Amino acid sequence: MKILALTVLATGLACAATLQMPPTCTQPDGMAIDPSGRLVIAAPNNNHKQPGAIFRLSEPGQTPVKWFDVPAYAESGFAAPMGICFGPDGELYICDNQKAGSARLLRLTFKDDKVATCETVAAGLENANGVKYYKGKLYMTSAFLRKIPAENNALTSGVYMFDAKDRNVRVTNTAADPQLIFTDVTTGNVQVGCNGIAFNSKGELFVGNYGASTVWKLTLGDDGKIAKKDLFVKSDAGVKTPDGLCVDEDDNLYIADMHGGQAVRVTPAGKVEILKKGGFKAPSEPGVWRGNFYISNWGGTTVEETKLP
After folding, report:
1. What is the pTM of this model?
2. pLDDT tens across 258-271, in order?
């Protein structure tokens, strides 16, 4: 396992705009760019005062508008969309973060800009947090895998890999799941594990461990599974709780540091840059779109928009 040296640089960027989400969003989270080039935002709305929904905007600075309500899970009566990503045919994959053991990974298709089908890729998940599509596979983080014991009461979490053609896969949330391709442990007081997930242009997979204050860089083999793992951001790099992740066209990694209250950028060479510290309400998910940097306020109803240098 290779450990990369990191340096920390504060850039002191200020937010250019705060985008107020509509009243139908009580909690913004995951982000993705749709095939038409619009910024799409997921809202789990965990207080259930509003249904879990998907929002979007066509131009920077706009007020996001609701696109659609995510089809509710029959057993709970709601959906809680968190991580989202689009596939090559415009299909949308959604982490529906239901209660432990009921979370789902969904696949939605569209016709005339409206939901046409909603299928379940995988169900029975203890947690469904972040998801990314890569070469016909879906990589999904589960921040909790409590059925897999770890020493000293540490928390186990991990990454699942599903085939994009999979439907109704039922997982056990144990080491017996063949789709579980990576696990990590979290010690300490913040018992949340693998969370944010992103691919760079080389096909390297980045996974943040929220409670461990680390980010892994995982190299995939020909079978799509993990062939090599490197600790890309160490626990002493100044990132307290790496939540959401994204990568720009230059392979810079962006991190929403929720408990640290900051937005962080890590260059491909491993230089850690604090883009903005303070002024957030529990930042949870970053996005890069049309030369701007976005970060959703999990603890509020707004999204911050900053012009990138």
Report:
1. 0.95
2. 999 999 999 999 99
